[in-house]
Amino acid sequence: MNKNRLEAFSDGVLAIIITIMVLELKVPEGIDCAAIQPLLPKFFAYILSFIYVGIYWNNHHHMLHTVKRVTGSILWANLHLLFWLSLIPFVTAWAGDNNFAAFPMMLYGIILLCNAIAYFILQNVIIHHHGKEEAALAKAIGKDWKGKGSVILYACAILFANSYAWIAGTIYIIVALIWLVPDKRIERILEN
Fold first, then answer.
1. Alpha-carbon distance 60 to 121, whole Å?
2. Tens digits of residue pLDDT in 108-138
3. In the chain, helix, strand, coil percent, each to 5?
4. Distance of alpha carbon 69 from its chain centroid, rounded?
5. Cβ-Cβ contacts under 8 Å for 39 (sequence gap 6 or more)
6. What is the mean pLDDT of residues 28-50?
7. Number of continuous H segments (helices) and E segments (strands) in the chain
8. Which of 2-6, 32-36, 88-92, 185-189 has the lowest mean pLDDT?
9. How far apart are CA 165 and CA 167, in angstroms?
10. Helix (H), strand (E), coil (C) string for the chain
């Protein structure tokens, strides 16, 4: 099967996810700066989540450049990732509406962790399908310290969230910053 339908479907789902998140931002009731202040937590949650969805879109796009043929297992692994990504608007709204309270921040981290695991699964299904020795993706990611480190940081943030939600939030921002720098590993492999 050709990968174009998979890419188009995934792009559509990610666009809907971003649309749902932005629709959660309500217009302030007043006309001065004070009217915006109560909306700031929700706006900051939106910014962070937008960055995360953008990071996944960017890396998903690059990863699919290494795919020669799509199999049923790749389709299901991709749907699994899209499922977890589709929960980002929910936890974003909940964390933002509740001023980054402990439990919403913990659930935010759990959803981010599940996204990272789902991405890892998709990555490994693609590698397995194309053969570990032959797969451009396997060569590009190498030991994937960035991916494994992110999972560890998410787990730490989840543990901190109950007592120190601000530490959890800081860790989520750090992971986003780590991934915000464009990952050139796949581009380098495909150029050769």
1. 12
2. 999 999 999 999 999 999 988 877 666 677 7
3. 80, 0, 20
4. 24
5. 25, 26, 28
6. 91
7. 10, 0
8. 185-189
9. 5
10. CCCHHHHHHHHHHHHHHHHHHHHCCCCCCCCCHHHHHHHHHHHHHHHHHHHHHHHHHHHHHHHHCCCCCCCHHHHHHHHHHHHHHHCHHHHHHHHHHCCCCHHHHHHHHHHHHHHHHHHHHHHHHHHHHHCCCCCHHHHHHCCCHHHHHHHHHHHHHHHHHCCCHHHHHHHHHHHHHHHHCCCCHHHHHHHC
3-state secondary structure 106-131: HHHHHHHHHHHHHHHHHHHHHHHHHC
Domain boundaries, the chain: 4-191
C-alpha to C-alpha distance for 172 and 158, rounded to whole angstroms: 10
